[in-house]
Amino acid sequence: MSGEDRFVLCMLAPALAILGLLVAYPVGLLVFDSFFKVDTITPHIREWVGLKNYIDALTSKRVAESALRTIQYSVFALFFEFAFGFCAALLFSALPGRSRWHRTIFTLPLMVPPIVAGLLWRFLLVGNIGILNYGLVHLGIIRDADAIAWLSDEDIVIYSVSFADIWLTTSFVALVSYAGLTNIPKDLLEAARIDGANAFKRFWHVTLPLMRPVIAVIVIVRAVDAAKTFDLIWIQTQGGPNHASEVFSMNIYQRMVRFGDLGEASASGTLFLIVMMVLAAAAYWKIWRPAHA
Amino acid sequence: MRRARRFNINGMLVNAAALVLVLSYALPYVYLLMTSIKPAADVQQIPPSFLPAVVSLENFREVLQSSALPKAFASSLTVAVLTTVLSLAVAVPAAYVATQYRRRITTLFLLFALVTRMVPSVSLGVPLFQLLKALGLLDTIPGLVLAHTSAAVPLALLLMSAFFEGVPKELEEAARMDGCTRFQAFRKIILPVMTGGIAVTALFTFITSWNEFLYALLLTSEATKTAPIVIAEYNSVYGLAWGAMTAAAVLYSLPVIFVTLALQKQIVGGLTFGAVKG
């Protein structure tokens, strides 16, 4: 081994050790446990059950419902975050002056702890004292303050809990999109204008194609994060009422902590992991690198 | 003439729209601030009012006089500092060789770090619980530091790699010509020019740990509860203590917001690095 190789290995070793101990080994343990009947309180006692945990998870109605809810939540949140954030970025870049202080306010929620965002939105939406409904009454949109039970109506709660997510991450979408927009060469847009393209055509044929990699990164990062969401929803409803806002990650947590079923929680955790990897890889190949697809 | 005027009206419309957008975006947090300085009884009045009728620090006094919150802030701070130090200590050297000495193992390594970022924390939380239990580290500061490090190292690796991309290979070669070993060149020449990037990375890892909730919920109980856990409990253990909750939430989030606003340029830069350059 050359001196150079030894240097590379020495510099890499601590990180490899940490990731091995804290990521690779736990993932291995997760997959291993998923084939056993094993209890959270006594994890050293295990009994081989083969694929039973997977079959149980895949045939459970509650698991299927929580998976569906995760998709509903992620699609809804991602759509509005992207729409609001991208429009805000377009607006900022269209401002005649500098948009510096607008963007300063937009950085405000960037680092706000998710549980604070969750509690804040719960406080805005909660029955009786939630100020949002009083605002809507004031604007004449609803008749009285009890008209919409955001967090206790089983039919809408999964969408209501995403408001906090939308508020929290619109700024991320806006600022990343803005950075992408400022990277587009001005002469390209100018050339299109001289060729007679109107504002919409310039946006559709110049801006959007050039923004494709940036949009891809935003969509991948945000979709993965939205699908993983736990704290933001937990703090608002703990999955209630009647499991109506229980997403997949929460279902895994409940089975591990409330029901103490480590084996089944591990099987679901493994499935979750695989789905996220496949989704991210597919998105990466399809959107980010269309030339290779 | 006509064209100039139309542009002006357009400009004003855009300005007005941006103003409305930005103000309504800030409104929820402003309401949280306003609520925290109301007297506790006024917080739950029906109908609610946006501005406080009387300004009172009652809610802040209550949360600071209870022993739970200050203790939780101490835990959060300790865990975040230790996580940052440990993560940077292992991630900075690794990111350096991963970008400056390209070979199969370093490429695989960076790919592994990227994949790790996709792992749902609940999937990792289940086996981490067992691992810490076996090591006797459940509900201890070192245990939570290890759990947070599992998330912070990949983040630090990716950020630091982006910063090291900009360092020319000649810098190390020049130092080696002057008689430095590779380690000396890294420690004495490379690290000093990277302080800006290291500071941004440290800030990100610190905030990641400071904001983390799920691992703290799974892996701690009485001894090392962090701030978000205690704040969440204001709404279950003590009934619906909205006043205390808003004050605690403000104390917990305001420092982070000040830091974010003060270092806005660097933070936005760090967040957009991968997205725009990648």
UniProtKB/TrEMBL annotation, chain A:
Limits of the ABC transmembrane type-1 domain: 67-283
Pfam families: BPD_transp_1 (PF00528)
InterPro entries: MetI-like, MetI-like_sf
Membrane topology label: Multi-pass membrane protein
Keyword tRNA-binding: no
Keywords linked to the UniProt accession: Cell membrane, Membrane, Sugar transport, Transmembrane, Transmembrane helix, Transport
Keyword Transmembrane set for record: yes
Name of the protein in question: Multiple sugar transport system permease protein
Organism: Sinorhizobium kostiense
From TrEMBL, chain B:
Keyword Lipid metabolism: no
Gene3D superfamilies cross-referenced by the UniProt entry: MetI-like (1.10.3720.10)
Record bears the keyword Lipid biosynthesis: no
Residues annotated as transmembrane: 12-32, 72-96, 108-129, 141-164, 185-207, 240-263
Domain ABC transmembrane type-1 per the UniProt entry, residue ranges: 73-263
Membrane topology field: Multi-pass membrane protein
Cellular localization per UniProt: Cell membrane
InterPro entries assigned to the protein according to its UniProt record, in alphabetical order: BP-dep_ABC_trans_perm (IPR050901), MetI-like (IPR000515), MetI-like_sf (IPR035906)
PROSITE patterns: ABC_TM1
Keyword annotations of the record: Cell membrane, Membrane, Sugar transport, Transmembrane, Transmembrane helix, Transport
SUPFAM superfamilies reported for this sequence: MetI-like
PANTHER family: INNER MEMBRANE ABC TRANSPORTER PERMEASE PROTEIN YCJP, MALTOSE TRANSPORT SYSTEM PERMEASE-RELATED
UniProt record similarity statement: Belongs to the binding-protein-dependent transport system permease family.
Protein name: Multiple sugar transport system permease protein
Source species: Sinorhizobium kostiense
Lineage of the species this protein comes from: Bacteria, Pseudomonadati, Pseudomonadota, Alphaproteobacteria, Hyphomicrobiales
